[in-house]
Structure formats: structure tokens, C-alpha cells
Amino acid sequence: MQKIPHTKLNATMNLIIFLFITLYTSCVYSYNKIIPRFPSSIIHPENPFSTSTSNNKLYKTKYFTQILDHFNYNPQSYQTFQQRYLVNDKLWGGVANSSNFPIFVYTGNEGDIEWFTQNTGFLFEIAPHFKALLVFIEHRYYGKSIPYGGDKDVAYSNASTLGYLSSEQALADYATLIIDLKKNLTAIDCPVVVFGGSYGGMLAAWFRLKYPHVAIGALASSAPILNFENITSPYSFNNIITQDFRSEGETCYKTIKRSWKLIEETAKHPKGLEKLRKSFRICKNYINAEALANWISTAYVYTAMTDYPTPSNFLNLMPAYPIKQMCKAIEDPRPGEDTLEKLYKSVNIYYNSSGNVKCFDLEDHSDPHGLGGWTWQACTEMVMPTDGNNEDSIFPASTWDYNDRRQYCKQNFNIEPRPNWITTEFGGHNIERSLGRFGSNIIFFNGLRDPWSGGGVLKNISESLIAIIAKEGAHHVDLRFSSNEDPEWLRDVRRQEINIIKNWLSPYYKDLLETF
Amino acid sequence: MQKIPHTKLNATMNLIIFLFITLYTSCVYSYNKIIPRFPSSIIHPENPFSTSTSNNKLYKTKYFTQILDHFNYNPQSYQTFQQRYLVNDKLWGGVANSSNFPIFVYTGNEGDIEWFTQNTGFLFEIAPHFKALLVFIEHRYYGKSIPYGGDKDVAYSNASTLGYLSSEQALADYATLIIDLKKNLTAIDCPVVVFGGSYGGMLAAWFRLKYPHVAIGALASSAPILNFENITSPYSFNNIITQDFRSEGETCYKTIKRSWKLIEETAKHPKGLEKLRKSFRICKNYINAEALANWISTAYVYTAMTDYPTPSNFLNLMPAYPIKQMCKAIEDPRPGEDTLEKLYKSVNIYYNSSGNVKCFDLEDHSDPHGLGGWTWQACTEMVMPTDGNNEDSIFPASTWDYNDRRQYCKQNFNIEPRPNWITTEFGGHNIERSLGRFGSNIIFFNGLRDPWSGGGVLKNISESLIAIIAKEGAHHVDLRFSSNEDPEWLRDVRRQEINIIKNWLSPYYKDLLETF
């Protein structure tokens, strides 16, 4: 996921947009020349399914001929593209003898569906219990699901071709594909439950709301569906990051808070940039104080999102509780380490836990997970104010200014964002009131250490629109593979989720029996 | 609403498509040269609001700048057009002193919104009771709400410009307009209830399902949301018409049933067409057996739809219980009237109750209510199988053949219909199961004498998705102006509807109070 640039260094550092799952990848913005960097060394998640051999065992890859535009009928809307989806039917109970075992569908995010699949172990682990068919659908314009004959250069060339990249079209894709798949499997009566994390979680929740005839329920994990307009404070995102670090130590928090000025000042000295380069092991090709600060802040932001209780390799290879480790590096330095060294050790937790990286390339703009389309989405409908920083923020104070976004989008795509559209289409204002007596069967999971949790649904809306909160949880931690080291609260979250899903299925089967 | 043509005379006669509210208008189809005719003498409804002076008192006309394409972001999607809406705020209680009186919105159908407004007296009559603001929104591409600078010739010129005429875009228009209007009126907390009849009723129901954050409930009158794919039998529509006539007398039914052959045979005789012309008072310019049969069947179809218990002037000026009158003309003829004369007297009930028409012009293709866009909608998403006729049908036996539609649409618009799209987007299959535990606050009214009732929701889905049925009711009779002659069952239907709407508002206000 690409970062939307800012005008000022201060603001840039915490302008963490639309990453969700995901990352500041790459991409130089001519706008302010700030280049958040994603080290190419950490592309491959190290889980049991990380090799192509085991992926072959995990799922079969299929393609569906999808229509480009579901909502209009002009000739260009009839174009089609190949949408990728992954299927695991090994544990599925099927439809024999009038049984109708469930279908669990992951509503793909803004990136390669294989990556998300490999990071959604929860589904593989609960499938045996439910005898469920697993389907992971890739979001249009990502991974291998590229319109215009699969030619990404064409699809991403301009607003005319990118124009069909929207969440409404993606949801309609999912509905169309699921209905067709069920017909082909003669599984029309099998209940479908949708799952998703981050943007995929938003899609899962919205899918249940908009297509209740296709999915009987949704688990929306870390889905900040309220992070639009003024529903959630634009300071919320960075406040949570601040709190995450502050909870590990006041010294840690203050050291980072003061570091931005230190870096700025150091850079002004003769040989200051060389000092910074040496302290942070930046490669020879390029250095610049703003880019460095941005690179550092990126580490804090994504570590806050992935502050998991066990070692992980989602964005990067990371130890358990990485924020704690970052703060430890700052608060318990080795003898002789100066502040810059301490800071380096802290960001090293994020960028180089493997210890393999010799130097860091601030010009590395690789996008290993194919998240590039998010910039477009952020410039059209996904206008999510997240980058305000109040005086207490761990990042320099700044305000959210919609005009920055607007100007960026004008410059890069010659497009005008529609910042009010998502709430028009999906709601969000006074959600307790508007959904308190409407809809059913959605779980909103949020881990409160996740900066996106500020835009999530944190209170039950009704008896069956349920919020599950984990005080110590991070970004869709519930959807990850379990491990023997998982803390009790995480096991408990997953148990709750499984029980709730069971409680959606039982009445469905009861209704089904009554129909016949 | 335009008729979609058929290949055979028999089939054509009962192919009543997409008229809903509405009419076989006009338009020569080169395909089979059948021209259903709508006499231009009956354009103006005769109700208290029929003159332009009283319309001025009834509502103010306003325009809203609407975006052409809500779901995509290519440059052409940013085009705008002026959407007309009518407002009556004279009875509105407003928002003073933290009161939040309701807003009743009519979700416009496939035609001029003034016409529908004038035929939706129910809203004007209940507004004082609720102190409600009334808003009637015109559907895009109809009336004065024409994209492409209001130039209908351009907007209707080809599939590229017509492509944005879809129900999903219309619903998004309504959401966008309502939210903006509420902001402008500082009426954000005022509850909105949507109302609609026929296609407008489908839109009202779908609006509540898709935009529950905008409307707290919907009265969907005579909304055949189940008349898609194979959910409703394609024979249902004409079976109901058959039953309507048969219930008034077996002789009436049999006479009409045999008449198609009689007309065909008569036309074959020398001077046969002249005999038909004389019997049916057809003007000199044009006659043809197929066109005549079609013109006659049109009368039966629309009379079945508007078989109201009091005199009406919706489609045409008509007496109370017009089917009864039609059958009376057949069963109690004046001395000396032959069968053709009897048939003429019966269709005269529909075409010439005023007695003013001297001769009927089978080539009259006027479209007084601007319903022309329905043909396009019927060729894209509104593929509603209605024109099967079994052996008992009052019309000649025929089967529904999707390929007829497909071929017609190919020929006329070079467009491929998407017959499965509506059920993908809005559901419909097993509606009790899919909505039994989802959604709330919709009334589905159906009058069982209305041929469209076969595609309606006739059973309660849940405690608050309620079916109201009137055995003797016709097409959205509940939404019409009341009269002193209204039968008790109709008064009772309206009383029920008012009570249910009250029961949506009370909890809304309770929730609102609790929020503050």
C-alpha cells in the first residue's frame, strides 16, 4: 500500500495512509520527495505454507471471468477480466445426503491474495471443525486479477482504466463469483460466511450488510469502517501509536518524540548526514533527513500495527511484542550507545530482525505484495483521516488537512476524491442508531494496540452485531495462525468467534429444514 | 413504459412488460410491427392537484446537481446532471426545539415525477398527521432529470449514453440527494421513511435494504421484487388477469378468450378489416389485426392493474371496478350487439370512459408520461418474465422465452441483458430465509387483483418485514388519494400502514433521545 504524501516533514512522518494490512510501500512522490521504504529482504512470510510446494497443497488456484462494471451498461462496462481465487476443498463436508456444509470466503484486500491467504491461518485451522470449503477471492486490480487482459501497465495507466477500481465493484465481484461457484458445485443451500482483515474486513462487514442473501454472517477483523469523515478523530490513529510506546516506558516515548528534532538538527551540521548514515546503516546511494525520518516513523507505525504476542512474519520478520523490544533497545542501551544508536537499534527490530541486512536503501521502492492500487483508492473513495498529531503525539504535531490529499490526487491522477461517498454508500455516522434495529451476524474484532482500532466498531451494536475487543491485540491478530505461545486472551477471542459463527449456522440449518 | 415486442401475435398480446404503473406506450417496433397504443386524450389526471396552479401550491420544484456515476472513477463518471425533486414543507414540523419531524420521500419511478406525485395522494393525506416533510425525487433519465445537459436526444441516443440508467445508480442518487438535503435543512437527525409504488416500490424496498443508514423504513407498494429469474412463474402475471375477468363471469372470460381467433379470422375475410375498423372505431389511417389485438389486450392488462374500487384517472379515466364494467358490457349487451360490438364496449371502458374519443389511432405513439427509458431498463437488468400463458389463459397460450428478449435487445440497442444481475445485487431467492433474520421495517403491500402481485412479497418475512394483502386490491391502490367511497378494506390497509410507520418512528425517537 502506498503512502499518500504530505507537504511537511512533520506531517509526513505520521501520515500513514491506507496501509491497513499493509505497508508503506515505495513509490517516489514527486510531490514532496518523501519515500517511505519497504526493505525487499522481508518479502516471504515464513509459515508452513510459504513455499510454492506447500502452497500447492494448501489451495488450488482458479480463475473466474468477471465483468468489469456491474452497475452500468455502456459498451465498455461489458469488458471482462480474469479474477483469481484460491480454493481448498479438502476438508469440505460437501452436499451429499442433503448435508450443506458451509463455505468460508475470504474477501480479498488490496494486494496479492496468496499473501493474505498465507496470513489467515485462522480459516485453515477452523475449517476441519466446520468441514468448511475455503475460498479466498482476490480483489480486482491486485495480484493477478488485473483488468485489461491482465496487463497491469495498461490497467494502471490512467484514470480511465483505473476508474473501475472501487470497493463497490469489488463487493459485486464477490457476490457474482460466490453465486456462480455455488451453482457450479450444486451447493446453493450451503451457508456462506465471509471473513476479512483490515480493508478486507471492511469489505466483509459491508458484504454482509449489502449482500445478506449471499453471506449469512461476517467476521470483520480490524476493520476501520468508522475512519471516514469526522466520525473518528483524525488524531486517533497516532494517539494509539503514542500510547503503545508510552505504555512501555516514558523514556522510550520521550526519546522518540525528541528524535525528530535531533535528526533535523544533526542533518544541518557539516558531516551530519554522514553521521546519520552511519548510525542508521543507510546505503551509500541516497540519504536525506526527511526520507530518513520517514523511514524511521514507518517502522514505528507498522510495528504498532503488528505488535503481536508471538514472533511473526507478516510485514516483516518480528519478535514477539516488538514494541516492547523497541523500547528496550532505547531504555536499556548497551554501554556507550548514543541516542542515534539507540534509535537505530529500535527501528532495527522492524527492519532487520533477521540481522541479514547490511545497509538500508532509502530509495528501495519495491512493492512485493502488489499493494500499489491503494493510492488510487485513497484518491477516490478511501479518504480516511488518520494523520493528525496532537501535542502529546510521539510524532511532531500536525493537523489533518483534506486539501493536502485533494492536491496530491489532482497532481497524480488528475482526479477529485469523493470524501463523503463511503458514508453515503455504507453509513457509519451514528452506527448504533442506524444498525441497532437492522442487520445481523457481524463480528467486529479489534485489538486496541492497533492504531486502526480507533476507527473500528468497539461497542456491540445489537445482539448479533457484536464487538470483540482485545486490549492487548494488534491488527487482525485473531486471523493469524495460532501458536503454542498464544496468550490466553487470544485463544479466548478465537473461541468466542468460533462459537458465534456456530450460532449463525444452527438457525440457518433450522430455517433450511423448515423450508423443505 | 414501453412494451417489449414478441415474435408472435399470440405472445404479443399478453407480453406486458415493465409497465408497472404504467403503460404500453407507443413506439413502433420494427421487430414485429406491433404497436400498443396509448390514447393521448387521457394525459391529465383529474385530481385536485391536476392544474399547474394547484401544483404550485402542492409542491415546489427543485433541482440537485447529481453525479453521473457513483461507482466508478473514470473521468466520464464525474459528469453531473440536474435531478429534479418536488418538495412540500408546509406541514413539516421541522427541527425547532430539538424536535425532529420526519421526512417522507417518494423514490421516483420510470417516468415524470409530477405524474407519480399527483397519483400518490396517500402521502399528502398522512403528512399532517406526522407533520412530515414530503419529498418526491425523480428517477434519472426520466421527466426533467436527464443527463447530458438535459438533452434527451443525446441521453437516449445510444448504449454509451444510456449506460448510466440503472436501478443501482438511481438508489445511489436518492441516498446522495437525501443526505445533502438533510444537511442543508440541518435536519440530520430527522428520520426518513421511503415510499414507492410499482418499480418505485421496488426501489423503496431495496433502498431500505441497501441504505438503512438513510431510511428507517420503507412502504413498498405493489413491488414485484420477486419477478426475476424463476422465482415467480412466468405464467403468474396473466393467470391473475385471467382470474380477474373470470371472477366477473365465465361468459365474459370465454368471450374474450375466443375473441383473438375471431379477430384473426375476421381479418382474413374480404372487407374483414373494414368490419373490424368500424366495430372498434379505429381511425382511417391504419389498421392491422395484430395491432388491433394488441390494442385490445392492452386494455385488459392495464384495467386489471387499475381495477380500483372508485373512479380513477391514473392511466386513463375509469369507473369504479372497471373489470366488472368490462364484463358487464360483454355479458349484458344492448339488443342487437354482436360479439365485436360487445368487445368494443368492454375496451371502451379503458380507452374512452369520457366518451370524447371519436376514433382510436393505432399509430399513436405518444408517451405523455415520459416512460420511454423502461425499454432500456428491460434490456439490461429488468428482465422480468411475465408473459407466459397457459391453456386456461384469457390470452392465447404462449411460453416465456428469454431469447426473444435477448434478440430484441441486441437488435435495438446492441446490448446483452444481464438477466441474473438483479437477484445477485438484491436477492430474491428464498427471501424468507435470507431476510428472515436480517433487516427490518419494510411493508410490502399487494392487491391480489393486480397482475404484478404474483411477483410480490405475499407473506410476512419477519416481525418487521411485513406483507399486507388486499384480496380486492389493484396496483398500489393504497397510495392513491382516498375518497368517501373507499371500501372498508382499503381504509383498513391505510390504517395498518400508518400504524406500522408510527411503530418505526417511536423507537427511532427513543434511540435518538438515548444518544443525547
Automatic annotation (TrEMBL), chains A, B:
Belongs to the peptidase S28 family. The lineage of its organism: Eukaryota, Viridiplantae, Streptophyta, Embryophyta, Tracheophyta. Keywords: Glycoprotein, Hydrolase, Membrane, Protease, Signal, Transmembrane, Transmembrane helix. Pfam families: Peptidase_S28 (PF05577). The keyword Hydrolase applies. The chain crosses the membrane at residues 12-31. It comes from Lithospermum erythrorhizon. One of its GO terms (biological process) is proteolysis. This is Serine protease. InterPro entries: AB_hydrolase_fold, Peptidase_S28, Ser_carbopepase_S28_SKS. One of its GO terms (molecular function) is dipeptidyl-peptidase activity.
